[in-house]
Amino acid sequence: MILFNEIDTSKNSFEDDFSSFLQQKNSINDDLINSVKDIISLVRKNGDESLRSLSLKFDNLDVEDFLLSEEEVQRSLENVDNGLLKSLGYSYNNILSYQSDCFKSLNLKIHDSEIARKFRPVKSVAMYIPGGQASYPSTVLMAAAPAQAAGVKEIYLTTPSVNGVLNDLTIAAATIAGIDKIYKIGGSQAIAAFAFGTEQVPKVDKIIGPGNKYVAEAKRQLYGLVGIDSIAGPSEIVVLSDETSNPELVAWDLMAQAEHDIDASSVLISSSNQVIKEVKEIINKEIKQLERKEIIQKSLEMNGMIVKINSLQESTSIINSLAPEHLHLAYDHNENKEEDNLIAGLILKGIDSANSFSDYVLGPSHILPTSTASRFSSPLSVEDFLVSYSYVSLKKSNDPEKFNDYIEHTSKLAKAEGLSAHAIAAEKRIKF
């Protein structure tokens, strides 16, 4: 029997209970910080030598060459069912199409004949793909497609092994996405390798993709030396329901999120006692048939929560405090008037909008901000691989009146700031 954590907004203890839950989710581990710092230092100083020793220590991988050979790639492809290859291709095409359309919708037109905002793609990117308790070949597609839509020329993939063995589906997904340089390195040492560059591993401009807490911490420490997409924490979902919600589908959506790992967070917010009751019953009944039932149970008990509210309108402040990775509005009407003000990395509206669909085939990337980062961060998209810059090409003869306005107002503002050379540099343009 699962011991659900339950709180109720009508009880006096709600604020304290909810604060404790938030604090638990956002705790800082000093030992982790120091451990990752030491690993980064080793890779920076010793390059491939440290990569080999760390890979042997953490991944039980003893290799001379970190780059997968063509023979290794082919062996992986032979191990993958043709039906799965077809599904990977279907998913990739949907994602690439969506991200390409996003690129086309960017305002790339100059607003003035002489002044413009332009974009260039990032030159090189390393994609980190998890390979531990759960390997996610779908993440390869979600990361690669927006980079390719943006026009990135150098895309590398790195993924850890499990007892020296890489996930065949991950390799297959990389092949479908057109990535031909795959590295068998994992953990914070992989992040450090691509940030600094080693004898075998290229230095890149940006590192993307989710990973465990060591990977996330390495990205945090190395940001600035290298670009990153985000600092990913454990996966999260908040399901908002009322008396019209289907308890069976709600229960399965919560379990689907919880099966990622024990640190995943599945939160049910509901105005219906009956829905809450049925959801709990269904989970306790159906969990027994699942391969990852132990993980699901631990996830729900350690990091899950059921929040009883009086009305859907009451949910807004709770949801925005959580600012979850995924938010599922599991009802089919518009009772919640604050819908447009809700904060989440991905909002799924209506009971048919299963998070499972968005994880695999819809198009928007499932690499999303976690740990309340959706307050200030966006899902991975084509824009993450574009660098914007301003472009100026003025000619006085094109519009002399506007040009004189530039001179006049620039001069006044520069003098007001005590920057006389700025003013004179502008005024000199009158003569030439």
Question: How would you sum up this structure, described in words?
Answer:
With 432 residues, the chain is an alpha/beta fold. The chain folds into three domains: 6-27 and 234-376, Rossmann fold, CATH 3.40.50.1980; 47-228, Nitrogenase molybdenum iron protein domain (Rossmann fold, 3-Layer(aba) Sandwich), CATH 3.40.50; 396-430. The protein is 45% helix and 13% strand. The chain has 16 helices and 13 strands. It has helices spanning 14-25, 30-46, 48-59, 70-78, 82-105, 137-150, 168-176, 187-196, 213-222, 247-258, 273-286, 293-303, 315-322, 355-360, 400-416, 420-427, and strands at 6-8, 115-121, 124-128, 154-158, 182-183, 206-208, 227-228, 236-241, 265-270, 305-308, 326-329, 346-349, 386-392. It has a six-stranded parallel beta sheet with strand order 1-10-9-8-11-12, sandwiched between helices. Helix 6 runs parallel beside helix 7 and helix 10 packs across helix 11 (273-286). The radius of gyration is 25 Å and the shape is globular. The chain starts with 5 loop residues before the first strand and ends in a 5-residue tail after the last helix. 41% of the residues are buried. The mean pLDDT is 92.
